[in-house]
Amino acid sequence: MAAVDDLQFEEFGDAATSPAANPGATTIHIEGPSESPTHQPGLPRGSGGEEDDELLGNDDSDKTELLAGQKKSSPFWTFEYYQTFFDVDTYQVFDRIKGSLLPIPGKNFVRLYIRSNPDLYGPFWICATLVFAIAISGNLSNFLIHLGEKTYHYVPEFRKVSIAATIIYAYAWLVPLALWGFLMWRNSKVMNIVSYSFLEIVCVYGYSLFIYIPTAVLWVIPQKAVRWILVMIALGISGSVLAMTFWPAVREDNRRIALATIVTIVLLHTLLSVGCLAYFFDAPEMDHHLPATTAAPNQTAAAAK
Amino acid sequence: MRSQIREFDSSTLNESVQNTIMRDLKAVGKKFMHVLYPRKSNTLLRDWDLWGPLILCVTLALMLQRSSVDSEKDGGPQFAEVFVIVWFGAVTITLNSKLLGGNISFFQSLCVLGYCILPLTVAMLVCRLVLLAEPGPVNFMVRLFVVIVMFAWSIVASTAFLADSQPPNRKALAIYPVFLFYFVISWMILTFTPQ
Prior knowledge:
Oligomer: heterodimer
Keywords (chain A): Membrane, Transmembrane, Transmembrane helix
Transmembrane segments (chain A): 120-141, 161-185, 197-222, 228-250, 257-281
Radius of gyration of chain A: 29 Å
Largest sheet of chain B: none
Distance between the termini of chain B: 39 Å
Low-confidence stretches of chain B: none
Shape of chain B: globular
Order of helices and strands of chain B: HHHHHHHHH
Distance between the termini of chain A: 99 Å
Pfam families (chain A): Yip1
Number of strands of chain B: 0
Number of domains of chain B: 1
Low-confidence stretches of chain A: 31-61, 287-299
Helix content of chain B: 55-70%
Helix content of chain A: 55-70%
Number of helices of chain B: 9
Largest interface: A-B, 24 and 26 residues
Largest sheet of chain A: none
Protein name (chain A): Protein YIPF
Family (chain A): Belongs to the YIP1 family.
Number of helices of chain A: 14
């Protein structure tokens, strides 16, 4: 009877592959990743096995592709189109913030946390909080530094809020635009495997600015050394998040261009933090509480700086 | 600016002006009471109106305005700045909560956010009175305490009205901008210094 079975065409319909009818056949379960198809030796494994793996392995990506297609289908003048950019839950936002604070080498922020669901909530509100954090703590720090001076009259310096808002929002939107344009241009010359959409780049930049919020609050401390240490720490963390995100996107390119891109990204970030520190926070002078003393102590204090 | 049913319109045409004004004032006053003693109720949402927020915003902006001697550079906020911050802040928060999937209408949310500025306006009045006394750290401590208490009151009041309209797993995302909004207004009130 075995010879007759070998010559017969095997049906792969439901009735034929039920375990009762055909106990020796391969059964394919598409239920979960823990299940694996049982292979019997001697049975045809060629194209059936590969289809197997494809179905099991790429189930998630099939679904996400379908969902991604459904997400962006509203035209851009409807409200639903913009709702897709706010499709995040509280725990997702917290996870993304946590990811920007703890850069792990080898883990890409975009692939790990954003996963083709970029949101605009994080970048917008982190920038808004940062604007007010910088303006308020700059004001507070200036007040504490000049506290004893007779000629100092406290002003809330409200103009600086608009200046801070312009700087921060311009940085968080124009730099990603320029970077995205640059990466698209390089993509047309060198085929990169990893490419980011504009919103993903905005998302990374927005979340990487989160570390500056506690930094700005701590900049109230009127010690130069403390402030510069804080700048170093914040720059280290957010710079490394950005560098590790964008390195895979330029890796296949010309070595010099790749390095120049990463260096530019980090340099612009440095410029932002140092610029904010210099503009919004007055320098803490050491001798501000000795205004009436003679020139000699002033000179020694100035030489010591 | 009131959401009343149409049938009564013809009968309100013949009443005296005093009746009309008193009815609107009573509605505004009733909502003020709801803000001062926040309970989960639908009154603020059902019959929204924007008179109360307008009155409160104008009062706050007038009190925050300094005389124009040296307020050109680096002074406190001008009238227009306070106005813009309050209204654009409220609009942004409303858009944010609608984009996150909340089922509250645009003007209802503006109404709630505007009415919940009432505690902070009261704080501004108290601060101006306290500033008539002699300046010093005690003066500042009193003002700080009053502003903090009123800030907490505003947050509690607006959360009581707004929280239910958000999807449950995004409540914190929708409430945080409200917190930031009232924090900025409290900062403006606290740092107000007269000449």
